[in-house]
Hints:
alpha+beta, rod-shaped, 4-stranded mixed β-sheet
Amino acid sequence: MMLTFDIETIPDQRPGAYDRLFESITPPDSYFNIPDSLKSDAAREKRAAENAANLQKWEITRVEEARDKWKRTALDPNAGQVVCLSWMIDDGTVETAWSENYIDERSILLDAFERMSAAVGETRIDVCGHNVLGFDLPFVQRRAIINRLRLPH
């Protein structure tokens, strides 16, 4: 019996997830330093102005970097969430578990596990899919543990 399997994931939806990433991104120390080797007031003022300009540019890139880091949490099973799980047994109908409330990951996983178990029973299966062993199955396994669910046999 062949089980073809795929999941779709989204970034961390926990309250404050983006804000924590944003706050973790700090500017280089050099944006605050004015070396003692700058002797004249004019040189020190020039360096302070450069630092202020660099800091302003950094604030813009900080937003972009935080957004990119947050988006990448969709690939981290400790943070991202499963929003859709689809499978097909042999050449049968494609089945899908999802929820209009995409935050309800536990229900999505539970629905998929119950329906897959009912369809497969105790029959030995082979699993296939794009990167299913490298991403999908480990991700689902970790999310099942986080949601206190047992994987189907």
